[in-house]
Amino acid sequence: MTQQHKIVQYTSEASWGMVEDKFSPYAKEVLDKLITFLEDEVWPASKVAHAQIPDDPVLRWKVIVPVIAELKEKAKRLGLWNLFLSKVHYPQWGVPLTNLEYAVMAELLGRETMASEAVNCAAPDTGNMEVLARYGSPEQQQKWLVPLLNGEIRSAFAMTEKNVASSDATNIRTSMRREGNEIVINGHKWWISGAGDPRTKIHLVMGKSDPTNKDRYQQQSVVLVPADAPGVKIVRPMKVFGYDDAPEGHCEIIYDNVRVPLSNLVLGWGRGFEIIQGRLGPGRIHHCMRSIGAAQSALDIMLRRVTDPGRKTFGKYLYEHGTVIADIAKSRAEIESARLLVLSAALQIDKYKAKGALKEIGIAKFVVPSMALAVIDRAIQAHGAEGVCQDTQLAGKWAGIRTLRIADGPDAVHIQQVGQRELKRVPGLVQKETERRKKEKVLMEKAGIKAHL
Fold this sequence. Notes:
Elements: H1 13-19, H2 25-42, H3 46-51, H4 66-78, H5 99-109, H6 115-118, H7 125-135, H8 138-149, E1 154-158, E2 175-179, E3 182-193, E4 200-208, E5 220-226, E6 232-237, E7 250-261, H9 272-306, H10 324-352, H11 358-383, H12 394-404, H13 411-423, H14 426-446
Helix pairs in contact: 2-4, 2-5, 5-9, 5-10, 7-8, 7-9, 9-10, 9-11, 9-12, 10-11, 11-12, 11-13
């Protein structure tokens, strides 16, 4: 009997059994190496990393967390680097892993918030690297993509705007106009992930370059803006339920008459939507993968809590009380269901690219974060007051994943798109039902049976 892969300790035999034959020998080796690295190096360093971020409101935005920097060097030496970037789609820059193979790895990374950064697979850099790898000019790739791939710098993606309903990106107002060989940018953005990090050297900014274009999806462009360009003003970090997520943050930024060379335009004028759709598809599914890991981690924490002899109430273990065991069962079932949904979406991306997997990505985008929130909430409840304070990871996990129901398109948008896609099936369904009734009528008449309806 062959020995089972270590991954079954963290997922399940059933889900691994479904995808194992789709894993190359190389991917299995990387997965094994990743698990060892996480167990021995990353997960034990979690508290150290949080402790190394100063409480001082100024210094916390200047720190490069020492233990994470050390982990990154170790990961690079082990070849656990840029695992998200598939060579299938990016032959020049990628690693020989499929989205499906990375999905299983990303779930493990999602168990601890800093793990993705340790292997250079953290947002928003992942999406920005994909944009530059797919759409960047050779000059842009050399100047910005290579340092990002090497983990030498970090980046931000600036799309969401203040005082604008940014769930419809055609509403964005940041202006981009050409003046000679320069592009002039003026706008007010917020919730810009990564902009607070002292290592962030480049912003990918989406703005309106052609407001009079009759096609509202060709009015926008994406431009590369150096973080230290004159006129780039970080107003403040935004807080998510009290968390500022330093040093990366989610910042409010003003671009005041920022000038960059024309060569900083990505792909071409009016191609902003094409770029963000290519960027967000894989990014959304990466978030879902990590969310499953966060949910699995929360369930593990809950299991330890409810079986702790020191936590007995009224003479019973917590799991012996009423709804607790039901909460455990529900959480297990929901995680398993969501994992299969995400693995299916990852497989569709591998087969048909992100554009051919929009339905699967859309469903996962609104199903998985809600599932993870429910699981984490049950774990919080099992911990009582400790569950909502800084002494466990649960409150931070909940705050981070609650944001995902808004980030990269709110749930309502994805629900609407999936529903509209379903409605397109109606003509075909009606035609099939009409054909079925015709056949039914023939059979009824042949059998001498009168139809009463």
